[in-house]
Predict the 3D structure of the following.
Amino acid sequence: MIRIGVVGAGIIAAEHMKHIHQNGHAELVAVCDVAPGAAESAVRQYGGTAYTSYDEMLKQEKLDALFICVPPFAHGEMEEKAAERGIHLLVEKPLGLNMEEVHRKAEVLTQSGIITGSGYCLRYIESVQRAKRYLQGKEIAMVRAYRFGSLPPNPWWVDHSKSGGQLVEQTTHNLDLMMYLAGDVRKVSADMALLLCRSVPGITTPDAASVNMVFDSGALGHIDTGFFPQPDGRASLEIMGRDFRLTLEGKDLTIMESEQTTIFRGKSDFYKSQDDAFIHAVETGDRSLILAPYCTAMRTLEVTLAANESAKTGQPVFFI
């Protein structure tokens, strides 16, 4: 059995704990959260021991793997301390808010030889994998995406210095899919504004953002994101190339070609697929099962932070 600990007992951590509990090759042995009630509630449901001190958990428990599910400002040296003990890591997105710190962590993780994964769970959707295979060798001209939703309940989320904003903390999933399917980015420019949510207490982060990109292939990209009041939440990604248009909405994939239109409706639980893949990778040592290792998540973070910088300075950011 793979002995697993979880740091953070919030909404996304609960999703991971559910799947760890359901996996016949894993055991949840420890949950750590600065709020004692949160960790205790989790272990009552899934088993294990509750901790409020991360260091104490590492001292007391012999862990094979660890899920780090804390806000982007709260990582500290969690990854380094786990790596020193040879504990494999799945780190939720975003990895942090400072690229210098994240690069330093990446070096430590690489040198330790541990297996790393990140929380870019949308890569594990069946329809995304079909889209990935379909796009191999095809010419892409334009990539467009959007994500609109409500304001998350976390009190720290409206503080730009703690969350990095919606693009960094939430819509990073959508931008990551753009890069996963269309390749790396060489230029980013962005505009952001706080418009309809100015009355939210303590808010310092923009509620609307528009980002332009140029991919390494020369394809052009654009993504819009916002959390201002709307009747519903929506997200979509569209890729257009020579004689095709590919659209992803939720788990559904539509490929329109000149002679036919193909629709594939995904049904699997992509969170579970991600967690099962990570656990199996730890069990077997097969790193190819991980679709978004730490270094990949680091690149996605870099592009989202560059968009923030562009919005702040009014200048595009180029990647060499």
